[in-house]
Design goal:
Helix content is 72%, strand content 2%. By secondary structure, it is mostly helical.
Length: 262
Amino acid sequence: MSTHVVSSVPSPQVSSAAAGRSMFNFVPVAIGWGLLLAVYASYRLYQGAFAFEYGLDATSPEFARYWMTLFKVEVPLIFGSGLCIWTYLWFTRDRDVAKIDAETELRRYFSLVAWFMMYTFSFLWIASFFGEGDATWHQTVIRDTALTPSHIVVFYACVPLYIVFGVSSLLYATTRIPAFARGYSVPLIMAVLGPGLILPNLGFNEWGHAFWMTEEIFSHPLHWGFPILGWTGLALGGLFIQVVGRMAELFKEVGGPASDAA
């Protein structure tokens, strides 16, 4: 005669606290999106108010007052803030990341998703709105300097902002999540560093325009680097597969059904 015993003891990783707490808090992301939206909207309104009136002559005192002042403030402010965030993420890293429990790892994956939500939100502004606006500006106004009202916003504010979020995402993943701490994730590196290379590619672009005085058209070879580097952001799809696959495993460990024994 055999008996069938059903175990009511939950898996060791399951805790009542885990069941009662939300794994993901969208509020910080919503606040971050709101702040970024306010920043980008302010930049666009500033361009509308002062670009054509004070931004057509780079040698004028008004250009120095309205545009060079903005440039001198935003660059150290954005990169300085990024340096503070990166320093914090590095010095607060988990020094024993390989031994974290499943619940902690799952929460950190949700935090990583939050970082990438900020990154992709900021990247979309240069990949669409301000990027297209830069081309139309230079098709309308003769380029007289690399620091135009359009460039001061798109290349020296928007690009640094998404670089800050991208590198922060990379640092968070490699210092707090076991899978990314053990080795190199090609999709993660491509998704973060590829679009970030748009900023140094700007130097080549400006050099070419200064020497050849080329027409400002999208298909010119000087601009090929921008979409190619932007396309590396598509590696987020591969990163999504890596993250979701591991999160599915962690969900089973953290909140899986009770095991049966015969």
